[in-house]
Design brief:
CATH class: Alpha Beta
CATH topology: Rossmann fold
Shape: elongated
Radius of gyration: 19 Å
CATH architecture: 3-Layer(aba) Sandwich
Number of helices: 7
Helix content: 40-55%
Structural class: alpha/beta
Number of strands: 5
Number of domains: 1
Order of helices and strands: HEHEHHEHEHEH
Low-confidence stretches: 199-203
Length: 203
């Protein structure tokens, strides 16, 4: 094979991969939930992944409504005090002290899953409602199910006003956000293939 033939072959392969990525991206963007599909089922826990006030508000509401026994907030930065979080927990009332747990170890989505798996096992919980952004939910579910395959998981996406999912192609910021999330989702799927699901929760 000549250098020219090799170059052409690599170029064709790159174009093919680009088209595959684009097709997958369009599917991913169209398949994102536009609203929570199950808002009524009670679970042992509600887990909020930090990243927006809408997520915390949803988690507090679910706990206040009695649809979970405890709320776990994963990935809270060390500068954020418990008192600051308490200040946002209006509807929770006295449940905050007994039933809101703050996790500070996670730095990414895989870390959220590991931190939550350790906590779920310590609590003896077998089901959770997962609260995060709608664009972030597919990757989060992959990471959580990889570490907790025996746990019942209900996705509960929230939708920040700044993320225009319905007409994402008209908003460059949203398009870039979803494209980046799709690429991370592919890496999460690859990790799942390379590291098969656990048969027991992490400890």
């Amino acid at each position: 094979m000549t250098v020219g033939q090799l170059a052409r072959g690599l170029a064709i392969g790159a174009v093919a991969l680009a088209f595959l990525w684009l097709g997958g991206f369009l599917w991913f963007a169209s398949a994102l939930d536009r609203q929570p599909l199950d808002t009524a089922t009670a679970t042992d826990a509600v887990v909020v992944l930090t990243g927006g006030s809408e997520r915390l508000d949803a988690g507090f509401a679910i706990l206040a409504q009695g649809r979970a026994k405890k709320l776990f907030i994963s990935g809270v930065g060390k500068p954020t005090s418990r008192a600051e979080i308490r200040g946002r927990a209006g509807p929770v009332g006295t449940l905050f002290e007994c039933c809101v747990v703050i996790g500070r170890e996670a730095r990414d989505t895989a870390g959220n899953a590991l931190e939550t798996a350790v906590w779920m096992e310590a609590e003896g919980f077998r089901s959770l409602r997962l609260v995060t952004g709608g664009y972030h939910m597919p990757r989060s579910v992959v990471e959580f199910e990889r570490l907790m395959p025996g746990i019942g998981l209900i996705p509960h996406p929230v939708f920040p006003e700044r993320v225009k999912i319905d007409r994402w192609w008209e908003w460059p910021g949203t398009a870039e956000l979803i494209a980046g999330e799709y690429t991370k989702y592919l890496f999460a799927l690859a990790r799942l293939r390379l590291a098969p699901p656990r048969t027991e929760p992490a400890s």
